[in-house]
């Protein structure tokens, strides 16, 4: 579709970040951007962030009106399209979120804070992280911020969110089997009360009515307006109707078919009545008039048509849990049926023991081949044939086996004798070598011992001379040593400086 010549494209785009967070930015350079492109945008606290383009063009103008924002309030701009370096840095920041969240949880537990940190969102430039937490009341987390700043070395922002916002950020699957509405398209979280379940005639079971966030499901409000419109025609305060037979109590109300079921006490049958007739009986009861029986005024119900089973439904049989067992049972039944069936001839007549039928004669050539292959069926005849064949073989080759056996015997007798002689010679040579080694070993220690004894005798003689010289020296220096000892009695050694010190007498 061609645009007018004087048309100017809307220069504001919508960018989506982690956890369904969206915001509007000005495309001041009028760069061509499509949905899903990664762009680098400005932030309010400095630095930059990276997100995906979610909307462009006139649809953004409609979203701005829906969120009741003004065009003048949108001041942040798109810096550029994300480069590969920006994308690598952004992915590295996202990989740190899981570990950072668990470390922050341990710090909160150590400080004893009653809060649950559910998610962490890193900025694209890895300079700031936003921690989302849930708590029942206000939490003093000033000490926690100090410890997290020391551990992570980044700017930290704490945001308290509700249970529904937590479920929308984390995502998941609902009881319907689809992804949660709050994490896909739902942006406005309206209050849901139990009256919405009462108007829709739902059982007040908290396990069925509550979602993953622990609150009532948001989908209870989807059809509430339709039920409220249908309830306008249904009369109020019609718990019972008075008749001549007795009091009939209300059991059930079908809003869309506009029927109300009543029953008498001690009776199991329910009587359907149109809403118009119920209003008439209610007016009669106020005037003091009682109808005879409600069964005479029961509404005619249309017969319930059986649902048509389509051809493409459960064709393969994969919906059945016991489909494999059924196949095995069917095979067994087929085998049993084949065994129990009587055999039939070519004309289709069943064969019984009382009416045997002659089998067709086989050709003579086939019988001869079988006799050649298998031989006669009598075992005695087979033995005689085998014995005759063996005797013929022996007569044909009577001398060959004997000559072969004689040669083998001569070879077997000569080979061991030569082997034994060789082994005996080898053993004799080994014994002679061992004998020489023993003689050498016995002679060597004797010569070594004699040398050692002579050396020890020379050492003892030298030591004896030294002792005698020392004794003479001590005898000569005895007198001079006594004089020195007398002069040194008046002095003692100091432990600190090891100098002589006179005794104080």
Automatic annotation (TrEMBL):
Could you tell me which species this protein originates from? Arcticibacter pallidicorallinus
Q: Which InterPro entries match?
A: PSP1-like, PSP1_C
GO CC list: cytoplasm
Q: Locate the PSP1 C-terminal domain: which residues?
A: 76-161
Name of the protein: Cell fate regulator YaaT (PSP1 superfamily)
Query: Which PANTHER family did the record assign?
Result: PROTEIN PSP1 (PTHR43830:SF3)
Q: Where is this region: Disordered?
A: 321-505
Q: What Pfam families does its record include?
A: PSP1
Q: Where is the composition biased (Basic residues)?
A: 330-341, 486-498
